[in-house]
Amino acid sequence: MPLFKSTSQRRNPSPPPPVQTSSGGIFHRNSRTSTDSASSSGSSSRNTRGGGGFIGLTRNRHGLDNDPSIRMARQKVAEAERAEREADAALLAARRAADGAREQVKMLEREAVEEARRAKAKQAEAKVINKSAKGLGRH
């Protein structure tokens, strides 16, 4: 048996370990020790760098897609992503509402300025009419 793993040699595929249904969290270790895994695989070293994904695990490796805790975690992530999208949409709607309110206030201010201008002109005209009416009734 060689000291180091050779890539030219093929390993006999071992059956996948049984799926554990207990949820122990993300850092939960299974009950098998490294000596158990070494004796079951027939070699003293395991390929820890193989496969892609999170910490070297490939998707659906060892039937993890059917694990209730994995499904629940994926569901929670999907719900959080949906909540973020809804929050983003609500934020955009709130910004549009605030912009609309600001525009309404500006329009109200313009109307008030215009009404003040008309009131001033009306006051000036009333003053002129009052001066011309002072001479009435003195005969």
Automatic annotation (TrEMBL):
Keywords: Coiled coil. Residues 70-125 form a coiled coil. The lineage of its organism: Eukaryota, Fungi, Dikarya, Basidiomycota, Agaricomycotina. Residues 1-67 are annotated as: Disordered. Residues 1-12 have a biased composition (Polar residues). It comes from the Eukaryota. This is Uncharacterized protein. Residues 32-48 have a biased composition (Low complexity).
